[in-house]
Each structure stands twice: as C-alpha cells, then as structure tokens.
C-alpha cells in the first residue's frame, strides 16, 4: 500500500510502498483509511520533538487523526464488523491499567500512539484495536470528519472543562483559530453561555472565527485593550490557548481576570510566571491532553446532530508534504485532510 513515512527527523516524509498492516492481536482491527487529518503535532513529530518522549524506530507512518471503514477484525472483536464506518480514537489502549480503569484513555501506560510512536494513518490502511473505534453514521463521510479524532476531541475536552466554570455574563477567549480553534469556538457556543472572544494573528483565522460564531474577533496586538474595554478592565474568565507557542502564554495571563482559568491546549512555549502574581491573582492553569474515548463519543453525537461543523481542505496522499508545508505556513483554513486515492 501507499504510505507517508518519516525516515529521518527534520527531513520531509516520503510516499513509500509498504506492506499492508495485518492482524497481530485478537482485538486488532484493520481500518481502510477514508481520511487522515493533518495536524501541527505531525510537524512536531517530523521535527523530532517526541524522539525521547515516545521513541519509535524509523521509518514510520505519520497520522493520528483517522477515520474510515473496518477492513478486517481479529477473532475476539465484537464491537465492530467488516464494512462499518468508524472514527479512530488517537490512542490504542490496553483497557486494564490504572489510567484505562480511570476512564482516561490518554493515561494508558502501555498504549500505542499511531503516527507518533507506531505506524499511523497517512496510508491506505491502519492497524488499531477495537477499543479505539467509534461508529459513524452513514451521513458522516470519514474524510469529512477525520480531524475530530484529535483536533475535535482535544477542543472538546478543554471546552468541557471550561463549561463547568462558565456562567451567563462570563467571557471566554480563544487564542488561535485554526483546526482546533474553530471547533472550540463552536463548542463554546453550543455548550456554554459565555461571550466568545477570538484572537488570531492572521486575517484568515479571524474570518473563520466570525463564520463560526465568535462575537468579538481581534488580533493579538489589539486583544488586551479590546478585552479591557469589553470587560470593564476585569479581563476574561477563561482563556483557551490552542497555540501555546511563542508568546501566547504571556498574552493569556495578561488578559485573564483575577480568579481566571488558563487552559493550555497547544504546546511548545515555556510558561514563565511570577508565583507571587499567580497567588495574588489566583490564576488556575490547566493542561489538556487530547481526550478520552467518552469525549470522542460526546463530540460525535454533537457532530451527528449538525451542531458542530468542520472546515476542511483535502489533499491526496502524495500531496502530504505540500499539506504539511501549507499548515506550517498558515495557508490552510480549518483543517487539511489526506484522502487515499
Ligand atoms: Zn492532531
Ligand atoms: Zn491502559
């Protein structure tokens, strides 16, 4: 089959002919890929950010935002059948460790992360386990929904936590309106009564924010003054930072009100903050790691009911390098999706 593989860190991946994955465990499922989302994490994987955190032998196939059709099932698989349309939770989990028993799939201590530390879905076929699969109704084409597997579930988890805080009269700011941010804005609108402020440095992102329901849309430079005026100098109650790179943490901390909560979703920057100020301002900082299986189920129920929509741009597998380059250079509105021929 065709697959896009990383051979060496910091070098562009290449389209290779590789053997189709086979069933290795009784609970394994082979998924024929209908779409694989192109994610900022893929850029970080190519750059070697996970080289020590989650070691993997090169070459390996990228792609952790996968959806498609069940092609083959192991002899212990009972939850899906050949031909079923499915979206794939990004982690393959064991089901019996403390993290799994806790319901937090991302905490699984013996997991495999396709596209990060094992072969992913930038390919025609993917091996996963039945535990990772959520059924898709017929009307949701895999290529149209694949990015929900990571971009969507991650935005959903952060907004689900924020929704427990946000009451009428409160304000939530979203930093970064790309693949995750444009889903996050819709979820905030759908599940909370907060006023939504969207912050993006690019006009493309600000346009998208307006289209998906942000009430106030502003550039990072103008954000502090606009938010001060909007909130009577108080600041916003919640910031969800979908970028987490460069100086977004300092912007987030600047625009938060006393007692506010900073949800970090995007990553890479270092958070530097005076602990005296942290205490005096009583700021809460919350990390967000993708989402559990239940988060993906909840999100897909909203998607089925047309309460959240994804903007995608499709590429063929042999355009993977172009898609990654377009993402890196801010040329994609919403999410890029690779679709095998
Ligand atoms: Zn992703
Ligand atoms: Zn586990």
Walk me through what this model shows.
The structure is a single chain. This protein has 341 residues and is an alpha/beta fold. It has two domains: 2-150 and 291-339, Alpha-Beta Complex (Quinone Oxidoreductase, Chain A, domain 1); 153-287, Rossmann fold, CATH 3.40.50.720. The protein is 27% helix and 25% strand. The strands form three sheets. Strands 3, 5, 6, 7, 8, 15 and 16 form a seven-stranded mixed beta sheet that branches. A six-stranded parallel beta sheet has the order 11-10-9-12-13-14, sandwiched between helices. Strand 12 (236-241), helix 8 (248-255) and strand 13 form a beta-alpha-beta unit. Helix 4 (151-163) packs parallel to helix 5. The longest helix is centred in the middle third of the chain and has 13 residues, at 151-163. The protein starts with a strand and ends with a strand. The mean pLDDT is 96. It binds zinc ion (2 copies). One zinc ion binds next to helix 2.
- Enumerate how many helices there are, as a single number: 11
Q: What shape does the CA trace take?
A: globular
- Assign the CATH topology of the largest domain: Quinone Oxidoreductase, Chain A, domain 1
Amino- and carboxy-terminal Cα gap: 11 Å
Tally the beta strands: 16
CATH class descriptor name of the largest domain = Alpha Beta
What structural class do the secondary elements suggest? alpha/beta
Helix % is 25-40%
User: Could you tell me the radius of gyration in angstroms?
Assistant: 20 Å
Strand composition percent:
15-25%
């Amino acid at each position: 089959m065709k697959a896009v593989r990383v051979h060496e860190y910091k070098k562009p991946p290449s389209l290779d002919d590789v053997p189709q994955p086979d069933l290795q465990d009784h609970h394994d499922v082979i998924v024929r890929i209908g779409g694989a989302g192109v994610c900022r994490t893929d850029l970080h994987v190519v750059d070697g950010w996970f080289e020590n955190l989650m070691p993997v032998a090169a070459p390996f196939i990228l792609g952790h935002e996968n959806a498609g059709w069940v092609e083959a099932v192991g002899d212990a698989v009972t939850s899906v059948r050949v031909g079923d349309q499915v979206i794939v939770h990004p982690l393959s989990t064991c089901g019996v460790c403390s993290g799994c028993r806790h319901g937090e799939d991302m905490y699984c201590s013996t997991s495999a992360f396709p596209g990060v530390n094992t072969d992913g879905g930038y390919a025609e076929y993917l091996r996963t386990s039945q535990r990772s699969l959520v059924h898709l109704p017929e009307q949701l084409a895999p290529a149209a929904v694949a990015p929900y597997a990571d971009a969507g579930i991650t935005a959903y988890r952060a907004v689900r936590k924020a929704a427990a805080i946000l009451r009428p009269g409160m304000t939530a700011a979203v930093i970064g309106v790309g693949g995750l941010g444009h889903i996050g804005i819709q979820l905030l609108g759908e599940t909370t009564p907060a006023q939504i402020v969207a912050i993006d440095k690019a006009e493309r992102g600000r346009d998208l924010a307006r289209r998906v329901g942000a009430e106030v849309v502003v550039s990072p430079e103008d954000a502090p003054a606009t938010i001060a005026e909007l909130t009577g100098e108080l600041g916003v109650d919640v910031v969800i930072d979908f970028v987490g790179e460069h100086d977004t943490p300092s912007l987030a901390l600047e625009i938060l009100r006393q007692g506010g909560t900073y949800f970090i979703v995007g990553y890479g920057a270092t958070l530097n903050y005076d602990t005296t100020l942290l205490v005096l301002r009583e700021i809460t900082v919350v990390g967000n790691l993708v989402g559990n299986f239940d988060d993906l189920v909840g999100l897909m129920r909203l998607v089925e009911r047309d309460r959240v929509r994804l903007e995608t741009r499709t590429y063929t597998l042999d355009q993977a390098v172009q898609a990654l380059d377009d993402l890196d250079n801010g040329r994609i509105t919403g999410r890029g999706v690779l679709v095998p021929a």
